[in-house]
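Exercise 7.
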Amino acid sequence: MDQDKFNRVVDDLNEYKGVTDVYLINDQGEVIFKSGNAAELSQAEGKSILKAWKEKEPSLTYQNSRFAILKNDDIQLAAKNIAGGKGNVAGSITKEGDYLVIHTDQETGLILLEWSILVNKLAWS
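Solution. The predicted structure, written as C-alpha cells, is:
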C-alpha cells in the first residue's frame, strides 16, 4: 500500500466516529505509515501485536493496555479492552502483505466486528 492509498483509507475510516489511530506496519512490526495524530508505535510494540495475532494468543498489548482478542484469523484481527474502557484494536492484512491496524474509542458508531470487517474491506480495496 502506498502513501496515497493509505491516506484514502484514513479518510474513509475517519468518516466514522471514534477512530483514534491508524497504522500500516510491515511483517517486522515497523510502522510504514501512521495517521496524523496517531500515538507513537515502536517496532517492539508492533512486533508484539503481530505475534499475538499470528500465534493466536488470547490478548495483545497496545499503549500499555491489555486487549482481549475476540477474532483472530490469518486475515483479520479484533481485540477489545474490556476492563479499562480503552477501546478496540482491529486489523487486516493487506494485498501487499503488510498489516493495517487501527485503534478506536470505546464508544463508536460501529461494534468491534464491524470495525474488523471495514478495515479488511479497505485494506483489500
